Amino acid sequence: MIGREPIHHYQHNQKIHAVALAPEGATVATASAFQVKVESANDKGFWETVADFEIQKLVNSLNLVPKVTCGPVAVAAADEDVYLLKAGEPTKILHSVYGLPVTCLDVSANEAAFGVKGFSWQINETNKK
After folding, report:
1. Looking at the predicted structure, is the pLDDT value of residue 129 above 50?
2. What is the 3-state secondary structure (H, E, C) of the chain?
3. Is residue 43 part of a domain?
4. Burial of 117 (0-12, 13-18, 19+ CB in 10 A)
5. Contact 16, 32 (CB under 8 A)
6. What does the alpha-carbon distance between residue 60 and residue 73 come to, in Å, rounded to a whole number?
7. pTM of the predicted model, to two decimals?
8. Domain range holding 61?
9. pLDDT tens across 30-61, in order?
10. Is the pLDDT of residue 11 over 90?
């Protein structure tokens, strides 16, 4: 916010489950119900939707990949799946293991890291990287 007024706002029709801010530039990604929406300011400073994705699961983690020059790229985790979301391209699954939900997610320019919940009785094997 500049002063007391927001510089941009938009809404979803349902509760927002995850938010990601770009580490550089003016880009925000949000996940609501089965929709992931990426908004960014253009070179004139006007905000617009640059990407809109439909995922058939509720997103619980969302990150924007830093240092991308070809437009915003997001990585989303929903249940046991991790998705790569690029505008103009089909959604790509980076990881999927049935029954092992993703518990945390982080990205860099070259890598995505995430943890999954295991179902072992041994305390040192319940979370894996």
Report:
1. no
2. CECCECCCCCCCCCCEEEEEECCCCCEEEEEECCEEEEEEECCCCCEEEEEEEECCCCCCEEEECCCCCCCCEEEEEECCEEEEEECCCCCEEEEECCCCCEEEEEECCCCEEEEEECCCCCHHHCEEC
3. yes
4. middle
5. yes
6. 17
7. 0.81
8. 16-96
9. 999 899 999 998 888 888 999 999 998 999 99
10. no
Q: Is the residue at 31 inside a domain?
A: yes
Maximum C-alpha span of the chain: 56
pLDDT, position 117: 80
Domain count, the chain: 1
Please check whether residue 40 lies inside any domain of the structure: yes
In a domain, 105, yes or no: no
pLDDT digits (tens, 9 = 90+) for 93-118: 998 988 888 888 999 988 988 888 87
